[in-house]
Amino acid sequence: RIFKTLKENRGKNKLKKRKNIITVAIDSPAAAGAGTQAKLISKNYNLFYLDTGKIYRYIGKLKLDNKKKFTYTQIRKKINKIRLDYLKNKSLLSNEVALSASKIAKDKKIRNIVHKFQQKCAYNPPKKFRGSVLDGRDIITVQVKDAMFKFFITANLNVRAKRRYDEYQKLNKKITYMEVFKSLKNRDESDKKRKYGPLKKTKDSILINTSKLSKKACFKKIKAIMDKKLKN
Ligand code: C5P
């Protein structure tokens, strides 16, 4: 069954790896369409999906909502208690939360707190799944270095800003296109230049540029690559 809380999936032992599972690792800058593709992959191949950015967003939101400073132990406790359902909460989607997430994500200790959980999801997903798909910034470079499939999904900044702006409009968020553009640009810079787990494309990952591709066309490309390898 799917773990209900992060704690259920922590465990003290060394990371166990299920054998013969399909692991898909995706890295991408914000709003490039990685989440959409990851969901399609998880559905099509029956894989457990984790949007790793949501965990950083959760911590970023804690920071925004509380004036008092949290210790790392308190953050760990909070993380242990959150339900995976909560990661779908719409309050995590705002621009303020995204920026706060990007700030706290520079912190090595915070990254270490969430890494163990993420790797368990990748290597030891619930039995009813054939494997896992994770998306984020450091999935190929740090978390699931030996993934069976590695995709670097990107799109040009204007396209990403337009897509994110449209999403905010649907959620009735008051934000201008220029604000979205600048915010994504700042986040790109911060995520690429930070010391721990910076976003970068590895040589062995497959580049998928979604600027001119529809969701469907993009998935078709990914599916062709995966089917070819899985048939062998
Ligand atoms: O993907 P999303 O936009 O939800 O991520 C929010 C922020 O969390 C990113 O800007 C990034 O700084 C951080 N993040 C990270 N490592 C990941 C996923 C997200 O540092 N694997």
Structure notes:
- With 232 residues, this protein is an alpha/beta fold.
- The protein has 9 helices and 5 strands.
- A 5-stranded parallel beta sheet has the order 2-3-1-4-5, sandwiched between helices.
- α2 crosses α4.
- The longest helix is centred in the last third of the chain and has 17 residues.
- The radius of gyration is 17 Å and the shape is globular.
- Cytidine-5'-monophosphate binds next to α2, α4 and α8.
What is the strand and helix layout of this fold?
Blueprint lengths: L21 E6 L6 H12 L1 E5 L1 H13 L6 H10 L13 H10 L3 H16 L7 E6 L2 H5 L5 E6 L2 H14 L6 H17 L12 E4 L5 H17 L1
Parallel strand pairs: 1-3, 1-4, 2-3, 4-5
Helix pairs in contact: 1-9, 2-4, 3-5, 4-8, 7-8
The site of cytidine-5'-monophosphate has 16 residues, from helix 2, helix 4 and helix 8.
Pattern of helices and strands: EHEHHHHEHEHHEH
N/C terminus separation:
30 Å
Strand content: 5-15%
Mean pLDDT across the residues is 93
Q: pLDDT below 50 for ≥5 consecutive residues: which ranges?
A: none
Shape: globular
Cofactors and ligands present? Answer: cytidine-5'-monophosphate
Q: Count every helix, treating DSSP H or I runs of 4 or more residues as helices.
A: 9
Number of strands: 5
Strand order of the largest sheet: 2-3-1-4-5
User: What's the Cα radius of gyration?
Assistant: 17 Å
How would you describe the oligomerization state of the chains in this entry? single chain
Q: Percent helix among the residues?
A: 40-55%
Main beta-sheet strand count, sense and barrel state:
5 strands, parallel
Structural class based on helices, strands and sheet pairing: alpha/beta
